[in-house]
Amino acid sequence: MQPSKGIRILAVDDEPHILQFLELGLKNEGYEVRCAEHGLAAITAMEDFKPQVVILDVMMPGMDGFEVVRQLKKMDNVAVIMLTARDEVDDRVKGLSIGADDYMVKPFSFEELLARINARLRNQFPHLFGEVILGPFSIDDRRREIKLDDRILELSPTEYELLKYMVLNHGLVLSKKLILDKVWGYDFGGEDNIVEVYVRSLREKLNDKDHRLIRTLRGSGYRVDI
Question: Which of 100, 111, 128, 151 has the fewest CB within 10 Å, making it most exposed?
């Protein structure tokens, strides 16, 4: 079960029937929902509604979805799921590269949208779920603790954020650039070999000498297998 109570979702689309569909469906799931019909309204709503998730249409008059993403990501930690009527790779790449967290093509399944909302919440707001247990790991964001087989790991703040990000995205190949963006931030000016240094430290603390938990995929990045 996902903790929908108290979670705020902002739906942004210039098509009233889409907004009505999203509002009714999400409210029936227990979410608090606010709607905006254009980019400026979305930015205003972000300031006072403070949503955890924004469902954002790409093609809108005036300020398009790409510019809205840029503005929202500067304001707060928010998960942005972009919607588009065009299944174009360039649009998806552009949206994700400027900070969008996920992408769906219209028409879409409401059940799939709920699953993606749930995934983004677990990834970016794990504290809403209390303790998250994934394989041998348990993550308690309130205590900022990660356990491996009930053993509390002694982690620095950056090690904690890195391991949390990798475990929550287990099974996915995470490039060094993506890790840098998500853990160190988009404005990090250092070298990407810092990721290698921290991964090496994590492997030591996990006693992962054989790289069975954190695998290296040469030329691609890292993947956590649990």
Answer: 111
